[in-house]
Amino acid sequence: MDKEEVKKVKEAVEETKLADLPGIGPAAVAKLEAAGVFDIMGVATMSPPVLSEVTGIGEAVCRKAIQAARKMLDLGFMDGSEYEKKREDIIYIPTGSKNIDNLLGGKGVESKSITEVFGAFGSGKTQLALSLAVHVQLPKEKGGPNGKAVYIDTEGTFRPERIKQFAAGIGANPEKVLKNIFVARAFNSDHQILLVEKISEMIKNGEPIKLVIIDSLTAHFRAEFAGRGMLADRQQRLNKYLHDLMKLAEQRNLAVFVTNQVMSNPAMMFGDPTTAIGGNIVGHASTYRMYLRRSKKDTRVAKLIDSPNLPDNETVFQVTQDGLKDVILKSED
Ligand code: GTP
Ligand code: MG
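Output (structure tokens, whole complex):
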């Protein structure tokens, strides 16, 4: 962008009205103005529940509007070349399934963001994480960022033999691939938090870490803050943790991938009776959220939820011995 274009972008941002935000119609604008919110900045600094309360619009839509507002402001605060550079930097990690890559916008999991995958026991969350830990090592000419991975394992489910199988599946050297993954078993939530602080040190020491996996993000928090009265504490700590992860992702231009269990909600009678642990806090902090479930004929369905810039969509894949495999549905399926 040259100076003239930068000026145009800045003017466009200044001229943006509340009604230009996705999902914000005239009625919502009137309610916002009645509440003293007149510009994009006012929306950008709100939380989805608050915006939802003020406007009466659903939280998912509010979240998108807030994210759009924040994006627009971002544009206003940096000059065009900085902006261009920020986008140029972004790297992508293929998941191993073209279907899932497409679901996430085409190239896989994105740096400078948190991708959360949630689903029931055995739905494929860990398999997807392991596949990413292998694919992050792909060289540029094969569509990868040629980086290393950190795997924070809270459940003891990291499987070196699966890594080797996935590596062999893409024709890479299994032993070398395994060596480029730093695995740590986190024994409790404090330890899990401490391990993230160590990652910055490793990067400073020259390790080209491009992917941080936390499998699972919530298990320890859930176990340690079990009682009803502890919910607020748990959410607060999770919130801070996610904030730190986001900072790490942005500062080091790496992708954060977290898994999350679902808890069953027996009160729900229709649909899938499960909800992601950590509720709103995890949902709002992650940029991309994907829900996995088992489906017929040993297939799995991945569904994108509430993405700020992509349509909510779903796709089908399979877990096989040597990697994730795309499933093309025939009409009789
Ligand atoms: P939790 O961590 O228990 O919440 O589940 P998860 O979502 O992490 O499940 P995970 O990713 O570990 O998926 C386990 C499933 O992957 C198994 O039940 C198998 O169906 C499948 N799977 C794992 N390894 C293999 C393999 O070598 N071959 C095949 N065909 N499937 C596998
Ligand atoms: Mg798992």
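The pocket of magnesium ion (ligand 2) is lined by residues 125-126, 157, 215 (CB under 6 Å).
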